[in-house]
Amino acid sequence: MSLSLLSIANRKSLFQSFFSLAPTGGTACRPRIFPGHDEGRASPTRAPPGSIRAFSYRRIGGLRQGLPKGASSRYIEIRQGLNTINNFGGNMSSAQTPVRPDRIMQLAWGYAPPLILEAAIRHRVFDVLDNGAKTVEEVEDATGASARGLTALMNALVGLDLLIKDVQGRYALTPESAAFLVSTKPGFQGGMILHCSQHLIPKWLRLNEIVATGKPVEPVNQERLGGDFFSKFVADIFPRSYGSAQTLAGALDLNGDGRPISVLDLAAGSGVWGIALAQKSPFVRVTAVDWPEVIAVTRKTVAHFGLMKRFQFVPGDLLSADFGANHAVATLGHILHSEGEERSRPLLQRTFDALAPGGTVAVAEILVNDERTEPLAGLLFAVNMLVNTDHGDTYSYREISSWLREAGFVNSRTLDAPGPSPLILATKP
Ligand SMILES: C[S@@+](CC[C@H](N)C(=O)[O-])C[C@H]1O[C@@H](n2cnc3c(N)ncnc32)[C@H](O)[C@@H]1O
Fold first, then answer.
1. Could you tell me the sign of the dihedral formed by the alpha carbons of 58, 64, 69, 75, in that order?
2. Which residue's alpha carbon is nearest to atom 12 within ligand 1?
3. Which of 10, 97, 115, 157 could disulfide-pair with 162, CB 3.0 to 4.6 Å?
4. Are 160 and 15 in contact (CB under 8 A)?
């Protein structure tokens, strides 16, 4: 075998081990969903994320412990470690495994993968390898970066399972890096990586101070800072939501009887939700609402897709802009988390008022369970909201569906989609 794939299947990357992310894009981070909780039928086998799981009892480290049913071996390991700590000086069982600091030491390096990815993207390492495996020297020739730098970077990418290296020292893409890290591919996720390194990490460096005050240093939920912040990166996150938006387009009846179908794309950003729906059906007409600075970007993306004639743009704040009336569909893509509960509830009310009877609202969010114990992606994103917004947070299906109900919506349900969490849909009666 020419490529040293042997160890890959059994090896867990830093991300997989500690952030529990699946190598294919994080579906392992979805909230667990169980049958029997949906009010509706979009996904009859799934219940709301965050359903309270039944508990069972097991002996861990000599103690009887209540564990969520189906608890992972990682969870049990951590509980075991905690028992060991809690029992120091007490009646610790001799059978207990000593707690070790390895995981914490590896977490200390958690900043490295996104920065390694950024450097590789900026130096076009994935692009250059897209047309075949290459040695360091060949990548050096193609990129102009130093051999020393590329060697360290590409070996680390092998360790992260994003490149593979053969016995001749040639590096090649994996299916995952070929699909998502080559800048010419439609699934390219590099924009999000650059957003993390350029805009998020610098702010996270002040987390200590932010935790002390409970206040963000630069609140991006306010137009003064948010307009500039979002206009710089909404186009980069287009691929993050495009698959989910296409799934939504496939789940809705957008053909009707051939008359125009009005879609209200709220907090439109790049316009990804409206664009996917408009691409699905020639009858779709979209009203896109966002801050004026960001609407300029929405226009550009919509023009890029050749859909300008099907869109109208409403620059303004979500709690005061004119949404129009009688829309068939309204999308709220990744906005409730930065608005926080206090503004999300009136926003859902305004959305309800702008829909026609029978209209559908679709909400995309990174969900957490009711107990706020998983999934990790949602819990980390809540810290991101602490860092960046005045009142933002991540929410559970149960919370969002209760706000939808309060606004007058019925039949709240989930729709499985290729984002970090399922979409939440509800209907105006
Ligand atoms: C995370 S982006 C999501 C963009 C797009 N919906 C998506 O899913 O990719 C949030 C968007 O909401 C917009 N936004 C945030 N607060 C807003 C407000 N109060 N009024 C209008 N737009 C707002 C931002 O400008 C940004 O475009």
1. negative
2. 267
3. 157
4. yes
The fold of 234-427 is: Rossmann fold (3.40.50)
Q: Please tell me the predicted confidence (pLDDT) of residue 94.
A: 52
Higher pLDDT, 385 or 49: 385
Residue type at 237?
A: I
Question: How far apart are the CA of 14 and the centre of ligand 1, in A?
Answer: 31
Question: Bridge partners of 329?
Answer: 263, 360
- Please tell me whether residue 362 adopts helix, strand or coil conformation: strand
Tokens of 407: 């606004």
The domain limits of the chain are: 56-105, 234-427
Q: What is the pLDDT of residues 173-227, one digit of tens each?
A: 999 999 999 999 988 999 989 999 988 999 999 999 999 999 998 888 888 888 9
Dihedral, CA of residue 284, residue 290, residue 293 and residue 296, to nearest 10: 0
Cα(271) to ligand 1 centroid in Å equals: 10
CB 342 within 8 A of CB 275: no
d(CA 268, ligand 1 centre) in Å: 6
Q: What is the torsional sign of CA 368, 106, 383, 68?
A: positive
Q: Which atom of ligand 1 is nearest to the CA of 318?
A: 20
Q: Name the residue of 291, 313, 332 whose CB sits within 8 Å of the most ligand 1 atoms, as the mutation to test its pocket.
A: 291
Q: What is the pLDDT of residues 296-346, one digit of tens each?
A: 999 999 999 999 999 999 999 999 999 999 999 999 999 999 999 999 999
220 Cα to the center of ligand 1, angstroms: 10
Q: How far is the CA of 281 from the centre of ligand 1 (A)?
A: 24
**Average of pLDDT values for 158-169?**
98
- Distance between CA 58 and CA 15 in Å, rounded? 28
| Tokens (6 digits) for 302 | 């919509």
Here the tokens at position 92 are 């610790």
Q: Which atom of ligand 1 lies closest to the CA of 245?
A: 8
Ligand 1 centroid vs 61 CA: distance in angstroms? Answer: 48
The closest of 87, 38, 88 to 63, measured between CA atoms, is 87
Structure tokens, 390: 């005045």
Atom of ligand 1 nearest to the CA of 226: 25
Pocket of ligand 1 (CB under 6 A): 221, 226, 230, 234, 237, 241, 267-270, 272-273, 290-291, 294, 317-318, 333-335, 338, 364
Query: 10 Å Cβ neighbour count for 153?
Result: 20
Q: Separation of 351 CA from ligand 1 center, angstroms?
A: 15
Cβ neighbour number for residue 146 with a 10 Å cutoff: 13
